[in-house]
Design a protein that fits this description.
This protein is mostly beta strands. It has a single domain, classed as Maltoporin, Chain A. The strands form 5 sheets. The protein has a 22-stranded antiparallel β-barrel. Strands 3-8-9-6-7 form a 5-stranded mixed β-sheet. Strand 23 and strand 24 form a beta hairpin. The relative contact order is 0.14.
Length: about 675
């Protein structure tokens, strides 16, 4: 499958370049707009209220990465793009696994975060999180990334717990013509993307794309060498069609395949009581999505969406079918009412792998949901009060209610104050309730002791009560400042609690099993805030900076005494970033970023400073050559250690690569 997709990717890219019509070659070329031209347009966001609104009117801590930010960052993955978002922590576990979190409680499965791509939730109910390696659309096709720091469960549902990452790609109407890029480097050995878009009617267009990447392995510390390299190929398409009477139809689809290794340290009951193994995996999958949007401006605005998603990763197969309907109308002056209904059916087929398995191996589950939200304009729209709630029923924890109250006060055209109170949940996953995994063997006498991880069939939803406040100000036309603070109270967090020993005297090698039972017993609170600022020094020079603070207190009755319960400590308390981007001449751009993260106590990773840099030259219209360096000053050092005990610590290396981009 991977070889087939690689061939398709290369062939589709060459075909797109060869068949580009002459008219398409007059499309907007790279580098025509300055930084301020690209940034000055007031950005409309949809992630906070599930409807379009300006950033300054959003009653939430939201940060937007524009297409210009994305391209000029030099980043080639979604996690790398998120490194310069306030309140977001990104740590690479190895060559193909990333831990991404918002405001603490980090983990390699990102299970406190909801991730969406064009309205499709990229979430696996096996592990309760996002698998970042398989969610990597073409970077140039991304219109923007909206990041909410704080819960969004009242509109987006369970698992929009600590935050939401909403990745929105460009309409096919915005990608007419041909685009291609080639990347070559040391760690990022080879990358290729190609896209071709064309009109099928006056206001309707289609694009096809292909993508291939080959990445080198991180340096693991288990003595097995560099074995977690990663190859991935992806092909896809998007169509945007204008229908009668202002209606719209969007179709998207993709297929992917990736090949990689997992290095694991597995327990054994005889000396030396562990062994290092390499498992090769070939993942594959795809999706199809259809979204219909009714005409705007009517008494009721309707939309409906259906998608089908299939993934096979780590030899586990998961298929999801999701359908939802939403309506928006104004029942009274000053009220904007929204409501929606949704249904999701997921079924999986699993089998044991080196690190463990699920019992029962196969399962299917359903989720029903409904939400309602009323935005009330007060005092001539100077104040907006939003009341909302979402009711869900899922197969793991039954009924869940997630209410939310938001308020926004526009003091004047340059200042906004907002506040929010919400309840959110992270529903249990198959890992929480059904997983079994051998962790390690202790060489105790007279019998060795096997530590065995076990899920809890009665595991409850993790719960969050959240208070958020914020202030935005634009003291001048060229400077903007965003300040946010939070206090979060958690209950039923996941913890690991040792059980009573079980003697296995009849086994081939007699031993003792100590079950490490998963339990939803941990309580904690976090508090902190972020400050971010942007300054357009002149038309072609933008500087931004941010500071994030997140502290955590854990209930000492469990988390303070049991080291196995301390996954919640896997986030830095302090993070700082600064970026500057400017044009030396009309055809040369320079972008430099520096970031700091304080120590991770549990992982024994110290404070570190790293830098990223990019210089780009446009020798001709529509042609750009660039040289990028990532992770400078922090070469061959760990960033994050997986909470899975079998996964060894890996050191992340500095990466340097060159890239050619062509648009015509």
């Amino acid at each position: 499958m991977q070889k087939i997709l690689t061939t398709i990717a290369a062939g589709a890219g060459l075909l797109a370049i060869a068949e580009t019509p002459v008219a398409a070659r007059d499309a907007e070329a790279l580098g025509d707009l300055s930084l301020q031209d690209l940034m000055a347009v007031e950005v409309e966001v949809t992630s906070v209220a599930r409807r379009g609104q300006s950033v300054k009117d959003a009653a939430a801590a939201i940060f937007v990465l524009s297409n210009a930010d994305i391209i000029r960052s030099g980043a080639t993955t979604i996690p790398d793009l998120l490194r310069y978002v306030p309140g977001v922590h990104v740590g690479l576990v190895n060559g193909h696994t990333s831990a991404v979190s918002v405001r603490g409680l980090s983990g390699s499965l990102s299970n406190k975060l909801l991730v969406m791509i064009d309205g499709r939730t990229v979430y696996t109910p096996l592990f309760a999180g996002a698998v970042w390696s398989k969610e990597n659309p073409p970077i140039a096709d991304i219109e923007r990334i909206e990041v909410i720091r704080g819960p969004g469960g009242s509109v987006w549902g369970a698992n929009a717990f600590n935050g939401v990452v909403n990745i929105i790609t460009k309409s096919a109407r915005e990608t007419i013509g041909t685009y291609a890029q080639v990347r070559v480097g040391d760690e990022q050995k080879l990358g290729f993307e190609a896209r071709h878009g064309f009109k099928v009617a006056e206001d309707s267009a289609v694009r096809f794309y292909s993508k291939f990447e080959r990445r080198d392995a991180a340096l693991n510390t288990a003595g097995a060498g560099d074995e977690d390299d990663w190859d991935t190929a992806r092909v896809g398409a998007r169509g945007d069609f204008a229908l009668n009477q202002g209606q719209k139809l969007t179709l998207t689809g993709s297929l992917y395949a990736q090949k990689y290794s997992e290095i694991n340290v597995l327990p054994q009951l005889s000396a030396p009581f562990s062994r290092v193994v390499e498992d090769r995996y070939q993942d594959q999958g795809g999706h199809a999505l259809l979204r219909w949007t009714g005409a705007e401006g009517g008494a009721v605005n309707h939309s409906a969406q259906f998608y089908l998603n299939h993934d096979q990763f780590l030899d586990q197969r998961v298929t999801t079918a999701d359908v939802e309907y939403e309506a928006q109308f104004r029942p009274l002056d000053g009220h904007l009412m929204q409501f929606g209904l949704g249904y999701r059916h997921t079924w999986d087929v699993t089998k044991p792998i080196a690190v463990g398995g699920f019992e029962p191996p196969n399962k299917d589950y359903h989720r029903f949901s409904a939400f309602v939200q009323d935005a009330i304009a007060l005092f001539d729209d100077q104040v907006e009060l939003t009341l909302g709630a979402r009711l869900e029923h899922n197969a793991f924890s039954g009924f869940e209610v997630q209410p939310n109250v938001r308020a926004r006060w526009s003091i004047d055209d340059r200042q906004t104050v907002w506040a929010s109170a919400a309840r959110a949940v992270r529903t249990p996953s198959r890992l929480d309730q059904d997983a079994v995994s051998d962790i390690r063997v202790l060489p105790t006498a007279p019998l060795p002791t096997l530590l065995q991880f076990r899920g809890d069939p009665d595991f409850e939803s993790e719960e969050l009560l959240a208070l958020d406040v914020g202030y935005r100000v634009q003291p001048s036309d060229s400077v903007s400042i965003d300040i946010a603070g939070f206090y979060y109270d958690y209950d039923n967090l996941r913890a690991q609690v040792p059980g009573a020993p079980e003697r296995q005297l009849g086994a081939l090698i007699p031993h003792v099993i100590v079950p490490i039972n998963l339990s939803s017993e941990l309580a904690a609170e976090t508090y902190g805030g972020e400050i971010a600022a942007e300054w357009f020094i002149d038309r072609d020079w933008k500087t931004s900076a941010g500071y994030s603070y997140a502290a955590i207190n854990v209930d000492p009755t469990l988390g303070g005494q049991n080291p196995l319960a301390r996954d919640v400590f896997k986030s830095p308390e302090h993070e700082v970033f600064a970026r500057t981007g400017f044009s030396l001449f009309d055809d040369i751009d320079v972008d430099i970023g520096v970031r700091f993260a304080s120590r991770l106590r549990q992982d024994q990773i110290g404070d570190y400073v790293a830098a990223d840099a990019r210089i780009a030259w446009r020798p001709a219209n529509g042609v750009e050559l660039s040289l990028s360096a990532q992770n400078l000053f922090h070469d061959n050092e760990p960033e994050f250690v997986s909470e899975t005990p079998q996964t060894p610590r890996s050191n992340i290396q500095t990466s340097v690569f060159g890239q050619l981009r062509i648009k015509f």
